[in-house]
Amino acid sequence: MANFIDRRLNAKGKSTVNRQRFINRYKNQIKKAVSDAVTRRSVTDIETGEKVGIPTRDISEPTFHQGQGGVKERVHPGNDQFTRGDQIQRPPSGGGQGSGNGEASDSGEGQDDFVFQISKDEYLELLFEDLELPNLQKNRLNKLVEYQIYRAGFTNDGVPANINIVRSLRGSLARRIAMSAGKKKRLEELKNKLKLLEDTPGSNADLILQLKQEIELLEQKIAKVPFIDTFDLRYNNFAKQEVPSSQAVMFCLMDVSGSMDQATKDMAKRFYILLYLFLTRTYKNLEVVYIRHHTQAKEVDEHEFFYSQETGGTIVSSALKLMHEIQQKRYPADEWNIYAAQASDGDNWADDSPACYSLLEKKILPLVRYYSYIEITNRAHQTLWREYEALQQEFDNMAVQHIKQADDIYPVFRELFKKQAV
């Protein structure tokens, strides 16, 4: 019997090719499972992949087998009831007990589902295949990774131009002290002893000569200690640090008045998640600003943004004004790529809609890369929709879409960010 031992240096990822074949083969089923899993995520959660399940009926392989009918001769082990020539009655059609179990589980996965984990990169690739950011050609330079040189301590190797004189002399002094301190102390003792013998009449001349020779030998050893050695040299160390030039900010604006129920907010959340995940594929540093509004606007965290509810009317311009103020203070347009996404059910004071048009036309749209507005409602459109439609005709970085139910979110998102014909 042959034994095969894998002695490759890198034994990891050996099934990568098979995995890619599997994903390509069942891409439609996997993409559907991935798009359905968006709702369970936080807006800024991109650190992990996703666990997806595919019904086993969708991954069945073609097989060859004998059809029903015909004469078959078989030997059944353990037979104690039949003899040769007995005829066995065929079981009724549909009476067999299959091994499958179609019962649903409380985790949303059927017992006949094939469940596996996909990585973060695979998740994003499947979710945003064939999509791109509009107007990106205006900002290609901001996608380059830039580096900044900064001091990073000292090193033993380097070029002469980077020698640190103070550190090198300090090392030289420490080395000379370590190598000659004992000799200098011994030299001082011998000199004192020699002086004492020379001042004493009748001292032994041979002892005096021996001391002089030892003193001379110590002085030669001390003199041989170099003032500076290559071991003492220290160089300034410099390292590269990435400059976050590829940075963007995503403004999320949402109406939280009494007309916006939780189901509508959940649909808006799915859209914001898709937009955030999509932007992270282009920008390394992405910040999110949440602005909720009814008659007044306020910057909040993610939980309050999606789950708080207010009563009263709706003034959309308050959110646009606050967004512009935050952008001017914290996110200069020459340093940040600005994106905005607004979700609403279309309610707004009729007198406020022209004010929204003016704010977007003069202050916001000239600065943002892309402004997307989704209206989540089954009712007829109101004044806000008509003003935004007029802006869409005037600006190519303004997009307006209508969502009626949760199933419309992903198709609408793909429509907003589909690749433009060259």
Automatic annotation (TrEMBL):
InterPro entries: UPF0229. It holds the Pfam family DUF444. Residues 52-111 are annotated as: Disordered. Belongs to the UPF0229 family. This is UPF0229 protein GCM10009332_24900. It comes from Shewanella gelidii.
